[in-house]
Amino acid sequence: MSEERRKRREERDASARNGKSKKMLMYGGILILLAAAFIGGRYYRNHKYDSFAKCLAAKQVKMYGLSWCPHCIDQKEMFGDAFHFVPYVECGINVTKEETPECKAAGLTLFPSWQFGTEPAKAGVFSLDALSDKTGCSLP
Question: CA separation (Å) from 112 to 55, 84, 109?
């Protein structure tokens, strides 16, 4: 009788270990899926304007700005990581806080300023919708 009991106990213990390992695998899989969704969402949020910024570059749109200008910083943040595709001209010399010769020659006094093709530059923070309307580039 004790031999039968021992076998049944071993079977129950083995069954319990299998159940625990299955649960751990399931929880691990769920954790991996959540991490992948988080990373994918973060990547999309930071790169969803890449094609829009590339379109602006193709349409010869250029932004003039200053590194210390809060409005310029706001304008750049609208694009997220995609801003590096936007043609950008830094008009400030950091040490002396003077304008670069290129910006002086263009007659720029307010920043940020946007130049659309060969038109004169227009000052102001433009919403992405306004940039889209002005250039014909579609937003995501």
Answer: 19, 16, 9
Q: Cβ distance 87 to 57 under 8 Å?
A: yes
Dihedral class, residue 60 (left if φ above 0, else alpha if ψ from -120 to 50, else beta): left
Rounded CA separation 48/74 (Å) = 17
Distance CA 48, CA 83 (A): 11
CA 44 to mean position of chain CA atoms: 7
Contacts of residue 49, defined as CB under 8 A and 6 or more positions apart, other chains included, come to 79, 80, 82, 128, 139, 140
Interval 19-43: pLDDT, tens: 677 777 788 778 877 777 776 666 6
Q: What is the pTM of this model?
A: 0.67
Would you give the distance in Å from CA 18 to the centre of its chain? 43
Q: What is the DSSP pairing of strand 113-116 with strand 88-90? A: unpaired
